[in-house]
Design brief:
Blueprint lengths: L2 E3 L2 E3 L5 E6 L4 H12 L5 E5 L9 H14 L5 E4 L13 H14 L4 E5 L4 H13 L3 E8 L6 H13 L4 E6 L4 H17 L5 E5 L11 H4 L3 E3 L13 H17 L1
Parallel strand pairs: 3-4, 3-10, 4-5, 5-6, 6-7, 7-8, 8-9
Antiparallel strand pairs: 1-2
Helix pairs in contact: 1-2, 2-3, 3-4, 5-6
Length: about 260
């Protein structure tokens, strides 16, 4: 089953190309949102963990209201990537919740990334906050050290599904190409088991590059690219990624 947000259908056809904003100041964030809104990309992710004032409520409120006023035409994901999962900030779960509460009140975003590692109680609170506002919850799990076994990855998706995630995501670090193959095998299995909702998988670094390209064949609904600064190892320029996805899609259609 796919999800449609602002005319973008997530979970159908080519994987949707999402580009991250990793700026630290208000003006730079707003300028990037306006710039990315004009690019040939499907989605935008704001990595708010890079924001210098993430612990200042009034600054956050003003930023989110200014973002809402831009009326971005593409789906926008708000993400706090914690240091434990490769992000830029140490943040208490209550403060994590408050950032998203301010964002929901400003009606500034369409999708909220919630880390599975926050635990069941916080995930339920965030799910209620997000769903009550009519928005979507993307649950995620990142491992920057290794690629867990397929059974372990599947258990993460089962937990996300039980918490009513709308989109489920795992990102892992490969040590070799066998790890990449394991991630792709997991993706196929997960797409079959969770056909009712979009899934997102990726193998990071240059070893995992293939995983960013073959979502249409294997089942991953979103792929992340760069416009300048990358937010994770292995991301490539959005224009190059678009070209490769178009070639793959054409060949699939002609097969």
């Amino acid at each position: 089953m796919s999800i449609e947000i602002k005319g973008v259908i997530i979970g159908e056809g080519k994987p949707k190309v999402c580009v991250p904003i990793v700026e630290s100041h208000d003006e730079a964030i707003l300028n990037k949102l306006k710039e990315f809104n004009e690019l040939e990309v499907d989605m935008i992710e704001l990595r708010i963990d890079f924001y210098e004032n993430i612990h200042q409520e009034e600054a956050l409120r003003n930023l989110f209201l200014n973002i809402a006023a831009l009326q971005i035409q593409k789906p926008v994901i708000l993400t706090i990537r914690t240091a434990a999962e490769g992000g830029k900030v140490e943040i208490d779960p209550k403060d994590y919740f408050n950032v998203y509460k301010l964002a929901v009140e400003a009606n500034a975003f369409d999708i909220y990334d919630v880390e599975l590692a926050l635990g069941t109680n916080m995930a339920i609170e965030l799910r209620t906050l997000i769903h009550d506002a009519g928005k979507y919850m993307l649950m995620s799990s990142h491992n920057f050290d290794r690629t867990p076994e397929v059974d372990s990855l599947m258990q993460k998706f089962r937990s996300m599904d039980s918490l009513e995630a709308d989109i489920m995501k795992v990102a892992v670090m490969p040590e070799d190409y066998q790890d990449l193959l394991n991630l792709l095998s997991f993706t196929v299995q997960a797409k079959h088991e969770y056909a009712q909702k979009p899934i997102v998988t990726m193998s990071m670094s240059s070893i995992g590059l293939t995983s960013r390209l073959v979502g249409e064949q294997f089942g991953s609904a979103i792929t992340f690219a760069t416009v300048g600064k990358a937010s994770a190892p292995g991301q490539i320029d959005y224009q190059e990624l678009n070209q490769m996805l178009d070639i793959i899609h054409k060949n699939i259609q002609e097969a």
